[in-house]
Specification:
The chain has helices at about 1-20, 115, 180-185, 205-235, 240-270, 275-300, 310-335, 340-375, and strands at about 30, 35-40, 40-45, 50-55, 60-70, 75-80, 95-100, 105-110, 130-140, 145-150, 160-165, 170, 175, 190, 200. By secondary structure, the chain is α+β, with helices and mostly antiparallel strands. It is elongated. Bound molecules: 2-acetamido-2-deoxy-beta-D-glucopyranose (4 copies). Keywords: Electron transport, Iron, Membrane, Metal-binding, Signal, Transmembrane, Transmembrane helix, Transport.
């Protein structure tokens, strides 16, 4: 038993580390003009190893942006911009395009019109529909970064942004990007620069990551583990050992799913750089406490050992702490992801049900306990 639990924990740790290392990180720190520029938030974008970082200044509605993308070749271009009117569309966008020319590294403004898209007209540098206060560019091989300080058009923090890259530039005119599915899909996103939420025209990968993280963790930490605790506390008086064979598998299942959900949370933090300190710290505390509980199973002293009583105190108090912290953190998470209300109401309904069952069983337990004491001759 002990051995298989250790093997199990080792495997789980391995899977977790694998997940964490695979996470594509975004960075808030860039270098432009030989000096470093730091932004408040960042997000990795779903294609072209692209990444966006930004700071939004509420006082003057200025948005500073750092964008990095990878061109198909070192003589290619990388572009980032905003469509002020329509989400998810190239036509109508105002973009900044970075490339290397005879006179050095350039980042110039372009307007993407119908005729440019139809290839009826070359893409010429031109004034754009967004207010650009300053720009900078940094090119290292095919990896190109753009800095821009923009004045947002109105008191609106939700922007429709767009990015892409192409293989050639001729006399300051970026040539068409590739036309494969990889070059065309997932190159636009809607992002709220204030909350750092992104909505990707239905295709943002963070959405499904957030969803999976939320569902898995609610199921594991918010339902299975508390259920296991209820079994542990109340079934014991009715059965000799069956409760144990339900309690342990439930908790191991809850822990497994919980650790996977936890790893997804770490990945979410890496790809969105979102800083939710309270939620993250409770999450880390939960992971540590739950791991201690699994190890406690292995180190459990035998039933009639004199320290078993203390082991029980410790196992129960950590268990209750986990249930309490889990519920708090699920509500924290619901507050952050802000899903449709049915998710929150659904979870509250499950909690109420579990609470009612616990209260009933608690009463039953006390009644049985008092009756037994009477039978044993205590008043
Ligand atoms: C906007 O405000 C920020 C912070 O107060 C300041 O650093 C920045 O220079 C301002 N930008 C403009 C264009 O006024
Ligand atoms: C290079 O020349 C183009 C065309 O004259 C000009 O628009 C651009 O600003 C120049 N870039 C640099 C880095 O001097
Ligand atoms: C970088 O240098 C260019 C040209 O000297 C300047 O226009 C631009 O404002 C600078 N940008 C940053 C972010 O320092
Ligand atoms: C922008 O709008 C929000 C709410 O609509 C408001 O709280 C905020 O003060 C506004 N900011 C500016 C700079 O007008």
């Amino acid at each position: 038993m002990a051995r298989s639990v250790f093997v199990f924990c080792g495997l789980l740790t391995f899977i977790t580390l694998f997940y964490l290392c695979r996470a594509q990180q975004c960075s808030t720190s860039f270098t432009f003009n030989g000096s470093s520029v730091n932004f408040a938030k960042c997000a990795s974008l779903p294609t072209q190893k692209a990444m966006l970082a930004w700071t939004f200044y509420e006082n003057n509605l200025t948005l500073t942006v750092g964008f990095t993308g990878e061109a198909p070749s070192t003589s290619g271009w990388v572009g980032w911009g905003i469509n002020p009117l329509v989400a998810g569309q190239m036509v109508g966008s105002s973009v900044l395009i970075a490339f290397t020319a005879e006179n050095g590294s350039n980042v110039l403004p372009y307007k993407l019109t119908d005729s440019v898209q139809a290839l009826a007209e070359p893409l010429r540098c031109s004034p754009v529909d967004i207010v650009i206060e300053s720009t900078a560019v940094e090119i290292q091989g095919a990896s190109m970064s753009i800095f821009a300080a923009l004045k947002l058009p109105s008191n609106k923090t939700v922007i429709n942004h767009i990015w892409n890259g192409g293989p050639n530039v001729k006399s300051y005119q970026p040539q068409e990007h590739g036309l494969s599915a990889n070059d065309l899909n997932d190159h636009t996103q809607i992002i709220d620069v204030y909350t750092a939420q992104s909505f990707g025209g239905g295709s943002s990968p963070h959405h499904s990551l957030k969803r999976t993280h939320g569902i898995l963790n609610t199921l594991a930490w918010g339902i299975i583990l508390p259920l296991g605790a209820i079994v542990g506390r109340y079934m014991r008086q009715f059965t000799d050992s069956i409760w144990f064979y339900i309690h342990v598998p439930l908790q191991i299942l809850g822990y497994t799913l919980g650790v996977i959900g936890w790893a997804l949370g770490m990945r979410l933090r890496a790809v969105t750089s979102a800083s939710h300190k309270v939620h993250q710290n409770i999450g880390i505390a939960l992971f540590v406490l739950a791991t201690i509980q699994v190890l406690a199973l292995v180190l459990r002293p035998s039933k009639d050992h004199k320290i078993r009583r203390y082991w029980n105190y410790y196992h129960h108090s950590i268990g209750y702490a986990i249930v309490l912290l889990s519920i708090i953190n699920i509500f924290e998470g619901l507050h952050i992801l802000n899903p449709e209300t049915k998710w929150k109401s659904g979870y509250i309904a499950i909690l109420v049900l579990m609470a009612v069952v616990s209260v009933v069983l608690e009463v039953v337990t006390w009644v049985r306990y008092i009756r037994k004491r009477r039978e044993d001759g205590f008043p």
